[in-house]
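Crash report, auto-generated. Payload:
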Amino acid sequence: MNLDELIQRLRDFADARDWEPYHTPKNLVMALSGEVGELTALFQWLTPEQSAAAMGDPELRAEVLDEIADVTLYLARLADMLGVDLLDAANAKIDRNELRFPTPGR
Amino acid sequence: MNLDELIQRLRDFADARDWEPYHTPKNLVMALSGEVGELTALFQWLTPEQSAAAMGDPELRAEVLDEIADVTLYLARLADMLGVDLLDAANAKIDRNELRFPTPGR
Amino acid sequence: MNLDELIQRLRDFADARDWEPYHTPKNLVMALSGEVGELTALFQWLTPEQSAAAMGDPELRAEVLDEIADVTLYLARLADMLGVDLLDAANAKIDRNELRFPTPGR
Amino acid sequence: MNLDELIQRLRDFADARDWEPYHTPKNLVMALSGEVGELTALFQWLTPEQSAAAMGDPELRAEVLDEIADVTLYLARLADMLGVDLLDAANAKIDRNELRFPTPGR
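Recovered output after restart:
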C-alpha cells in the first residue's frame, strides 16, 4: 500500500456512499482539524517524556493509532480534492527549509 | 520520492540541526496542530464553493501548498518518532470504517 | 457570574483535585486546542447556512453548548495561569484592529 | 469592560465593515481554530516549565497577549452569533464536572 493506493481507496469509499458533495476543501480542513484536536487530547496531560513512551501503553497506543490514522485519511483526502501531490509538496518544502535553516559548518 | 524516503529526509534534516530533543510526540503534535491552524485560516472566509476553486488562484495556491506541506512534514515526523506506519494505520482504519458505514444494497 | 468569578471557581475546582501541576500553559493550550477540535467537528459537514441554524436543533444545541463551555473553561484557566486579563487583552486588540481595518468614509 | 460590552464592541466593529455575512458559526469556528493554532505555535517547543515562565520574556509576552486576545475575540463573536451566553454555559459545565469528578473525602 502506497499513498496513491490509499487515496484511491478513499475515493472509492466516498463514491460508494455518495459523500463527495460533503468533501469540499473547506469541510475537509475542518475534519482534519477536528481529528488533530482528538490526537492532541491524547497527549495534553503527558509530560514530554511520557509522550515519548506513549506507545508502550497498549490502550493509549490503540487510541494514538486510531487518531493518527484519521488525521492521515483526511489529509490524504483533502490533498486529493485539491489536486495536491502531498509528497511533492512536502519535499519542496524541505528544499526551502534547507535554505532557511542552514546547518552549522557547511 | 515515497513516504519512507520523505521520513528519512526529515530524520537527516533534524539530525543535522540537533533538533531531535525538541521532537517529542507532545511537541510534534502541537506543531502539527499549529500548522493545521494556518491551513484552516486560508479557508475560513471562503464559501465551500470558493474553497473548491482555491487552487485556481495562484497566490492562494502557493499558500495552500506551503501549509499542507508543513502539515505533512509534521505528521510524517510525528509518526516516525512514535514508530507508527502511517499508511498501515490509515488502511486499517478504512477497514474499520467499512464496517461502521456499510454501503446501501450490499 | 462574571468572568472573574468563573476564574475563581476554576481555581477552587483545580485546587480541590490537586490538578494544578497539570495546568501548565503548555498543557492548557493543548487542552484548549483539543476542545476547539471537538467544537469544529460539530460544524464540519454543515453548510454555512446550516451552521447559522444549528441552535434550532435540540441535540446539536446541547453539544454546541457543551463544547463551547469547555473551550471557555480552558481559555479562562489558561489566562489565569498566564496572569492575563482576557477582557483587557481583547479590548486592546480591537483598538489595534481599528487601526488595521479603518472603516470607509470615516 | 465586561464580556457583554466586549461583545457589543465586536458587533459594532463587524457592522461598520459589513463583515456580518462572513460571520457564520462555521466560519467563526474556523477562525477560532486558526487563532488557537497560532497560540499553540508559541508554546510548541517550550518545556512545560518554560511555558510557565513565558510571560517573563517581553517579546513572547506580547505575542501571547496578541494571540490569546484573538482567541477571545473569535470565541466571544461566535457565542454572540450562536446566541450563547458563554459564562452561563461555562458555569453549567463546571456544575456537570463536579458530578463527574467528585473530590476525595467529600
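Post-recovery validation: Residues 30 and 74 of chain D are 9 Å apart (CA to CA).
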